[in-house]
Write a structure and sequence with these properties.
Layout: E1 13-15, E2 22-24, E3 28-31, H1 36-41, E4 53-56, E5 61-62, E6 66-67, E7 76-78, E8 80-86, E9 102-109, E10 112-113, H2 114-123, H3 128-131, E11 137-138, E12 143-144, H4 145-148, E13 155-160, E14 163-169, H5 177-187, E15 195-197, E16 205-206, E17 212-217, E18 221-227
Parallel strand pairs: 3-15, 5-11, 6-18
Antiparallel strand pairs: 1-2, 3-4, 7-10, 7-16, 8-9, 8-15, 9-12, 13-14, 13-17, 17-18
Length: 228
């Protein structure tokens, strides 16, 4: 048995609906500007440009139901997204075969230190300081595709303190789930445990300490998160 020079870090994992076992997370890929209206509100052309991705860390995913407001930021935004959990992977996966690699789906928030992200954009630097901070992806449990199928449409919405902020439909994605998987597999070797956050509809905005976020996707339930 291999010995390590330090204690083995805890495996990041998500609960699974209807199971005592968990879904272990290997990598987290996030697609940017995947809803036309959101691209417009962020000042970009909504035409179908080539997709682009950034990454969060596996331990950024947090099913605790609490989001601690992060340090060094005064403008933290919510972004409601559908989470896609892979059970297998590979290279150069054909679009027609992509969904066979999906284990299930869930709800997630891509919380963003917008002010810090904006500074990095202006300087032409990576976004991790704005995207990949601790507990930056509150999320719910994974729903196995065997139970819920492969959602291609359905309302995705988010409320803050009861006020509707984001309201869209999964069918508004510019790049669909099979296309995202196929594209990513051209540049990375995907594998079991990989997670994709599939983009957010328009209406992103700031949260404050004490706010209550309620996110829902038709067929995948509700995610309740308190900003601590």
């Amino acid at each position: 048995m291999t010995k390590h020079v330090i204690e083995t870090p805890e495996q990041s994992a998500l609960p699974v609906v209807g199971s005592d076992a968990t879904f272990p997370v290997r990598r987290v890929y996030c697609i940017g500007r995947n809803y036309a209206a959101h691209a417009i509100e962020m000042g970009h052309d909504p035409d179908r440009e080539a997709p682009f991705f950034f990454q969060k860390n596996p331990n950024n995913l947090d099913p605790s139901g609490e989001f601690p407001y992060p340090a060094h930021s005064h403008d933290v935004h919510h972004e409601a997204e559908m989470l896609v959990a892979l059970q297998s992977g590979g290279r150069d996966i054909p679009i027609a075969e992509a969904l066979s690699h999906v284990y299930g789906y869930g709800l997630a928030l891509d919380m963003t230190r917008r002010d810090l992200q904006g500074e990095m954009k202006k300087a032409g630097r990576p976004w991790e300081i704005g995207k990949a901070f601790e507990q930056s992806a509150p999320c719910g449990p994974v729903f196995p595709a065997q139970q819920v199928g492969h959602p291609t449409q359905g309302r995705i919405s988010l409320k803050v303190n009861g006020d509707l902020r984001q309201d869209g439909d999964l069918n508004q994605m510019i790049w669909k789930v099979p296309e995202m998987i196929a594209y990513l597999s051209q540049y990375f070797e995907l594998a079991a445990g990989d997670v994709i956050l599939s983009g957010t509809p328009a209406g992103v905005g700031p949260v404050q300490v004490g706010d209550v976020i309620d996110m829902s996707i038709e067929g995948l339930g509700v995610l309740n998160v308190k900003v601590a």
